[in-house]
UniProtKB/TrEMBL annotation:
Keywords for the protein's UniProt record, in alphabetical order: Oxidoreductase
Record's keyword annotation contains Amino-acid biosynthesis: no
Name of the protein in question: SDR family oxidoreductase
Taxonomic superkingdom: Bacteria
InterPro entries noted in UniProt: NAD(P)-bd_dom_sf (IPR036291), Sc_DH/Rdtase_CS (IPR020904), SDR_fam (IPR002347)
Native source species: Streptomyces venetus
Family matches, as Pfam families: adh_short
Transmembrane segments: none
Protein family membership: Belongs to the short-chain dehydrogenases/reductases (SDR) family.
SUPFAM superfamilies: NAD(P)-binding Rossmann-fold domains
Amino acid sequence: MVGAFQGAGVVVTGAGGGIGAALARRFAAEGARVVVNDLDAERAKHIAEEVGGVAVPGDASAIVGDARDALGGTVDVYCANAGVAADGIQPGQPLDEKAWALSWDVNVMAHVRAAQELLPAWLERGSGRFVSTVSAAGLLTMIGAAPYAVTKHGALAFAEWLSLTYRHRGVKVHAICPQGVRTDMLAATGSAGDLVLQPTAIEPEAVADALLKGIEEDRFLILPHPEVAAYHQARAGDPDRWLTGMNRIQQQWEENR
């Protein structure tokens, strides 16, 4: 797809490293003008300089206006990639309300706020592309990480809603749902990630490749780990059997912690 996005204005949030940086590099290689967003201004600047883009650091929930200005007034592709992972609830321990609130804000509401700002211009001109980095946790679940699993389900639900509501008006939506990806976030998942995600983990560049292929094929659901499709079908076809299997993994994790 060399040159497929020549001149397009692309925004990637959470692009200071990991999947976001890989997306920024890939879109730049395709000829796009890339805005690199990250909370860490130095990391955003570093990746922007590498790809010949513009750094717009800050909260991913509030950068659409500045990103649009940096691109000369038009955003063609918005990659809602910024995300946070938080541990699950523990019996007898205080509920971490702040972790839940942050997870909702970054993993779901940042997508909602961005779409709210982007949609008027996209609908007026009849084109626009929204890319949501969801995770396989949004299709399945993840042991030991209730806020992450629940809010990633929310991110997928919002992406589905955007697609079904606006696809006939020219808005394209893609949901990327990888399992383990070798990033700082995977490293932070600890023993749960070691058990469930590390064995099949892929590089961030493979996620970027899968996205570009999915865009070329005009697919909503993009699975860098193809086996996730079978897991998703098994979950839908027999929820109790699937939950029993996941519970075995939970027990294995508890025994080995």
